[in-house]
């Protein structure tokens, strides 16, 4: 029996080594992906705002002076650069310096949150996995990265990426409203909702990706108790459209999916071996404490 447990523990150790290797590979895949996503995001946002200003609201754009147009374009570039930095910061720390969240069934009991704090802006877009404390050579058990940990890390990265795109969409829409490109009477809450809503295909603005067309009912300033329907075109950045429009981003996503598929298989094998070890240990514990009366 002891030999069987020892064999399973060796298999578990080999799986843990493979999981550690795939963690590094997954981190590198996301680093490469977010790099090209940031570049694609810049290109797609410039294209979307160009179309919105020249095709959606050409009269409003022409009313701007030359200097105001330059200011608007500079602000657009500034906002997208900030979002690119937010994307890069998502993978600034390696996975080995992070710990599973509280729901991880395989979470190590030796970990604790780091005392370091970050600005609120970075916390909003950082995956919700705290840094690990350092482990001294005398620690009885090293902190391990489990398959569950990696899957949660991946989910958090994807969720944070979506939030960054939603925030950038909202910031650009407010900027366009500030420069009187979009109707100034629209409430901020409506613009924010348009930045986050997942629209049907028919709501996209023609064939231009990352734009959303909405029909909005607004009050008529010239007549009391009357309203009119206004067509609203807003920036609505979506990862799926950026990936579809940029082969490099699509290739990066495909590579992540391939690594995730291998991780899922490793995770199933890992859980199976943990279960087998627990059963053998429980059987041995039962026999060691059983005495015939």
TrEMBL record:
State if Coiled coil is listed as a keyword.
yes
Top-level taxon of the source organism: Bacteria
Q: Where is the composition biased (Low complexity)?
A: 127-138
Which residue intervals make up region (Disordered)? 92-138
Q: Where is the composition biased (Acidic residues)?
A: 111-121
- Provide the alphabetized UniProt keywords: Coiled coil
Sequence ranges of Basic and acidic residues compositional bias: 99-110
User: Which intervals of the chain form a coiled coil?
Assistant: 256-283
Record-given protein name: Uncharacterized protein
| Natural source organism | Limnospira fusiformis PMC 851.14
């Amino acid at each position: 029996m002891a030999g069987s447990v020892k064999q399973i523990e060796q298999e578990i150790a080999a799986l843990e080594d493979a999981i550690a290797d795939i963690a590094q590979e997954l981190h590198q895949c996301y680093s490469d992906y977010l790099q090209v996503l940031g570049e694609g995001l810049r290109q797609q946002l410039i294209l979307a705002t160009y179309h919105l200003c020249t095709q959606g609201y050409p009269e409003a754009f022409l009313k701007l002076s030359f200097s105001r147009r330059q200011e608007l374009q500079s602000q657009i570039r500034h906002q997208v650069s900030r979002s690119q930095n937010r994307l890069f910061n998502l993978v600034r720390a390696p996975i080995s310096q992070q710990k599973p969240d509280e729901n991880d069934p395989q979470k190590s009991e030796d970990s604790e949150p780091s005392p370091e704090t970050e600005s609120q802006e970075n916390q909003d877009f950082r995956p919700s996995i705290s840094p690990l404390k350092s482990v001294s050579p005398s620690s009885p058990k090293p902190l391990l990265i489990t398959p569950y940990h990696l899957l949660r890390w991946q989910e958090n990265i994807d969720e944070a990426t979506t939030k960054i795109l939603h925030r950038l969409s909202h910031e650009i829409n407010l900027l366009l409203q500030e420069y009187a490109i979009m109707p100034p009477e629209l409430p901020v809450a409506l613009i924010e909702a348009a930045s986050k809503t997942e629209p049907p295909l028919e709501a996209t603005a023609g064939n231009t990706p990352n734009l959303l067309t909405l029909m909005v009912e607004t009050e008529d300033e010239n007549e009391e108790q009357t309203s009119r329907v206004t067509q609203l075109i807003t920036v609505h950045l979506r990862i799926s459209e950026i990936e579809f429009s940029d082969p490099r981003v699509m290739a990066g996503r495909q590579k992540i999916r391939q690594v995730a598929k291998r991780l899922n298989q490793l995770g199933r094998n890992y859980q199976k071996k943990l279960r087998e070890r627990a059963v053998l240990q429980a059987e041995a514990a039962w026999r060691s404490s059983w005495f015939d009366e």
